[in-house]
Write a structure and sequence with these properties.
The structure holds two protein chains of two kinds. By secondary structure, chain A is α/β, with parallel strands linked by helices. Chain A folds into three domains: 363 residues, Aldolase class I (TIM Barrel, Alpha-Beta Barrel); 136 residues, NAD(P)-binding Rossmann-like Domain (Rossmann fold); 117 residues, 3-Layer(bba) Sandwich (FAD/NAD(P)-binding domain). Chain A has 23 helices and 28 strands. In chain A, helix 20 links the parallel strand 20 and strand 21. In chain A, helix 3 packs parallel to helix 6, helix 15 packs parallel to helix 23 and helix 20 packs parallel to helix 21. Chain A is globular and about 75 Å long. The N and C termini of chain B lie far apart (67 Å). Classes of the chains: A alpha/beta, B alpha/beta.
């Protein structure tokens, strides 16, 4: 076996887990009316089917004062039990175990959804939600402990194998533990002993409610990573004390808080396995099984962490959102077939942050497992000849799905390699992992029996001569020109030219950013890395305006500033002038209407977004029985929609 | 005064270097051979050294014995190069699956055949701790057995051995010969000369199997064992040390250390200068780095 440690069983409390892979808790936004839903059953069940030894549900809220997110499950209502039973039965049929996570978010929420004041140890607002909480009175603490216990009983009645209490990055318990949020002068604040009093109350109430023959653990924040907050040394001490209480069976870990959310859910700008040192640090001090989570997206790395004794259980979250069958494929030695998560954070964290249902750029089936999950693909009743023009993500997905259904598929691309615009996008700084999208799909396209023709410029005549039954146009998009005067000619370049090395840039570069996403920032950094001076101008409130939801804002801004890039927000650029080597930029502040001039610059880079490349589609209209267009050549969007449309069409034709 | 009548049998056992991580085989019933470093047990080599010292001072004959597969020849050649007179390697596949009782029968039989004045070996193994086999074999052949020995003073038909006792005290015990002595790792094994190592490569190692002992096969291995292996696992390994963020650093630095994977940025300098200028440039760098103070001489 390739991964003997990863697929060895582990006893956690009274629960025997068949392997070391845990599908970690994360919001799904799939609950309906604050009750468990069928979509959740299929969602968590798909990961059990895929071989995860343990599934931990999303946070379930234990008290009415905690409604940090609209679509949480209110576990303190007994109405949850029937839904829980369906979920746990479904998961158990695949020989996986399932724990429920209980949480009260404390000050890390606001009262606008519940219409109740939020509760916290002290009236300190959270940095993200900014609402001043009510300082909990001792009877409030008792009440929350009672609600934790009540909720735990519902969990046990619902057929779960264990319960995890959230003491991590977003939790009332951590707010009690941390000197940053606990300013109490009573028996719940001050000394470490006092700060641990309320969390210990929560644990012991739950233990009393579920009994000793039920698995109970906590998820600790290993380091708050903020001045004045808990650091690893303090958390090691706290963990040792919780262990000594004898009330808990395992220690799950997270990192950071909402002050630095980009560390909680590190994007592709964070190294793989970036939290391993913290897990190893905790595991040095305690004997309980320790979980490690944080960009471990690959069984090889997981095996190494286990073999080195740095953790006992590998938490995989995004890795299994992206490929629920990673465990099974790893166990069967089919690592080539694993669809690796790239931590783009667009479909999962990005969508959840905007209160949309959970998704995944690379896995359109997330949250739709019943319709699109494993085993739902049916062979086509009529076999057709399908020709797809454009080997980007949309074309590749359409080809893969159609090929799997038994169609005869030909995929044509003018480039020498599959990947389309991804090949350019992955050249941006810190975006190289984006190319893994292509790595993941290339072999699947081949396995689906698709004929791939590269370096072929598809013409209307050629295509029609082949007499395809279905023609799919996925020709993508091209960079848009700047709508204002002078923004053309020498010394003015677009992103594609810069990243493909076709632009001869001078030493002083102005990058005009109408995008706000990685297209602008990764390109600016690409230029700055060549030792050039870059000024960024945008009409948005700030540079990296679109990078908040994916947690790329902080690290992108940090690196750009460290590399001497300047940011000028609020400016609409209206005019570009001057000769090559002395280009000038003229624009006005969109709020004050005051005009400014910038320059001289050696070169300008325009990040204007894209426009469709639909000439081929327009010329083919009305000439073939079935003609479709998908992805950017319908309207230029992001890769998630290209894959979604390719996948959907491949299933339907 | 030389005394050639003593023959000393030294048992050399193999032990696993405790440093590399042990891995359990797929079936979960043994340690995987891959990546494992093996070495002669250090206490056994100390016992061999003790025997060779006796040979040097009293003129005893030293026979080394190893029980195991052909790779143990290396340990025996080492013993030859250090000065042993005779080497025997016993191995029979029938011994697989045996326990201490079964293995002790083999050792007892070899002792009976060779009839040495002494059986020397180490008091414990570095990887497994105490090994009851020599003591059980001594008991089976009615020999006295002295453990935790630190030094030995042999007489004509008796021996005095100083050994470790309670709370760091030393005890001297006496016994008649033949006698088994289990040594602590007190003496440092001698370092053989190149000539001796070369000579050891062609030295004759006697290979014994079950037919040499006259033991029936059901006495040894799993058939002769009192214990049967049911399951095998390594205990929870201690974490391999990785760079954890130093809690005394500010949060900003801790984050950088985590996101850099513990790698600190380094800069390189390239100077292509004459010898004099290179020397001066180096001295400048030393000054900048605070390695030297003041002007270059």
């Amino acid at each position: 076996m390739m991964f003997p440690n990863l697929f060895s069983p582990l006893k956690i409390g009274t629960t025997e887990v068949k392997n070391r892979i845990s599908f970690q808790p994360h919001l799904t936004n799939l609950a309906i009316s604050n009750l468990p839903s069928e979509r959740q059953m299929y969602y968590w069940g798909e990961r059990a089917k895929g071989g995860a030894g343990l599934v931990i549900t999303e946070e379930l809220t234990v008290h009415p004062t905690d409604m940090a997110y609209e679509k949480l499950i209110d576990v303190y209502h007994a109405e949850v039990i029937p839904g829980f039973k369906k979920i746990t039965d479904y998961v158990h049929q695949y020989d996986s175990k399932i724990f429920a996570q209980l949480n009260h978010n404390g000050q890390q929420g606001d009262g606008s959804l519940s219409r109740l004041p939020i509760w916290a140890p002290s009236p300190i607002p959270d940095v993200l939600f900014r609402e001043i909480p009510k300082a909990m009175e001792p009877e409030d603490i008792e009440e929350v402990a009672r609600y934790f216990a009540k909720s735990a009983i519902h969990v046990r009645e619902g057929g779960f194998d264990g319960v995890e209490i959230q003491f991590g990055h977003s939790s009332l318990a951590r707010q009690f533990l941390s000197p940053l949020t606990n300013f109490r002068s009573d028996e719940y604040g001050g000394s470490l002993e006092n700060r641990m009093r309320a969390p210990l109350k929560f644990i012991s109430a739950v233990r009393k409610a579920v009994g000793n023959d039920f698995t109970l653990g906590i998820r600790m924040c290993a380091d708050e990573m903020i001045p004045g907050g808990l650091d690893l040394a303090q958390v090691q001490e706290i963990c040792a004390l919780f262990e000594a209480s004898g009330l808990i069976d395992f220690m799950d870990l997270s990192i950071a808080t909402f002050y630095n959310l980009y560390l909680v859910e590190g994007s592709m700008h964070s190294p793989l396995g970036y939290t391993i040192p913290l897990a190893a640090g905790i595991r040095e001090k305690i004997k309980l099984p320790v979980f490690c989570t944080g960009r471990i997206n690959d069984p090889v790395m997981a095996e190494k962490v286990l073999a080195a004794g740095q953790a006992d259980m590998i938490g995989m979250c995004r890795a299994l959102i992206c490929d629920p069958f990673l465990p099974k494929k790893a166990q069967e030695g089919r690592v080539d077939d694993i669809r690796y998560c790239i931590a783009c954070n667009q479909g999962c964290i990005g969508r959840i942050g905007m209160n949309k249902s959970l998704g995944c750029v690379q896995n359109p089936a997330v949250g739709r497992e019943k319709e699109w999950g494993e085993g739902t693909l049916e062979k086509a009743s009529v076999k057709k000849n399908v020709t797809i023009v454009g080997g980007g993500p949309a074309g590749m997905w359409a080809a893969k799905m159609a090929g799997r259904r038994g169609h005869t598929v030909t995929l044509i691309d003018r480039n020498e390699a599959l990947g389309g615009q991804v090949i350019t996008a992955m050249k941006g700084v810190g975006r190289d992992e984006f190319g893994v999208i292509i790595r993941n799909e290339k072999s699947q396209v081949e396995k689906a029996g698709v004929t791939v023709k590269l370096g072929v410029e598809a013409s209307k005549e050629q295509l029609l001569a082949e007499k395809p039954d279905v023609l799919i146009v996925a020709t993508g998009s091209v960079p848009k020109k700047h709508p204002v005067g002078g923004a053309d000619g020498p010394a003015i370049f677009n992103v594609v030219q810069v990243l493909n090395g076709e632009a001869e840039l001078g030493e002083r570069v102005c990058l005009i950013d109408y995008d706000g996403h990685q297209r602008a920032t990764a390109t600016a950094e690409f230029i700055a890395n060549q030792g050039k001076k870059v000024d960024m101008i945008t009409s948005s409130l700030f540079i990296c305006a679109e990078l908040g939801p994916t947690q790329d804002l902080y690290s992108s801004r940090q690196r750009l500033l460290q590399k001497g890039v300047t940011f000028t927000p609020d400016i609409a650029v209206m005019e570009v002038g001057g000769e090559a080597g002395a280009k000038t930029v003229k624009g006005f502040n969109v709020y004050s209407n005051v005009w400014f001039d910038w320059g001289p610059y050696d070169s300008l880079v325009l990040v204007m977004g894209q426009q469709v490349d639909d000439d081929l589609y327009m010329s083919l209209k009305g000439t073939v029985p079935e003609l479709y267009r998908i992805g950017d050549c319908v309207s230029p969007r992001k890769v998630d929609m290209a894959i979604w449309e390719g996948h959907k069409l491949g299933r339907e034709i | 005064m030389p005394n050639n009548k003593h023959t000393i049998l030294v048992l050399l056992r193999e032990t696993n270097d405790p440093r590399p991580p042990a891995r359990v085989t797929a079936r979960g019933a043994a340690i995987s051979e891959r990546g494992l470093r093996r070495m002669p047990n250090p206490a056994d080599l100390a016992a061999l050294e003790e025997a060779l010292c006796l040979k040097d001072s009293l003129g005893a004959a030293v026979t080394v014995l190893a029980v195991g597969p052909v790779r143990l020849d290396d340990s025996l050649r080492l013993a030859f190069s250090m000065g042993a007179d005779r080497a025997i390697r016993f191995w029979d596949h029938g011994m697989e699956g045996g326990d201490a009782m079964a293995d002790a029968k083999v050792l007892a039989r070899i002792i009976t055949i060779i009839a040495p004045s002494f059986l020397f070996t180490g008091n414990s193994l570095t990887d497994r701790g105490d090994d009851p086999v020599p003591a059980l074999a001594a008991a089976a052949t009615s020999m006295p057995c002295i453990g935790a020995a630190v030094s030995i003073l042999p007489g004509n038909n008796s021996v005095e051995v100083q050994r470790k006792s309670d709370r760091g005290a030393r005890q001297v015990v006496g016994a008649t010969l033949p006698c088994t002595v289990l040594f602590e790792e007190v003496r440092t094994p001698r370092y053989p000369s190149i000539d001796a190592i070369t000579a050891s490569l062609s030295a004759n190692i006697e290979k014994w199997d079950l037919s040499h002992l006259g033991l029936p096969f059901w006495e040894i291995g799993s058939a002769g064992a009192y214990l049967a292996a049911a399951d095998f696992g390594v205990p929870r390994p201690d974490p391999t040390r990785v760079v954890t963020p130093d809690p005394s650093l500010p949060a900003f630095e801790r984050i950088l250390s985590l996101l850099s994977g513990g790698i600190k940025a380094r800069s390189g300098k390239l100077n292509q200068l004459s010898a004099d200028d290179t020397a001066n440039a180096l001295l400048d760098i030393f000054r900048e780095e605070g390695l030297t103070a003041g002007e270059a001489p």
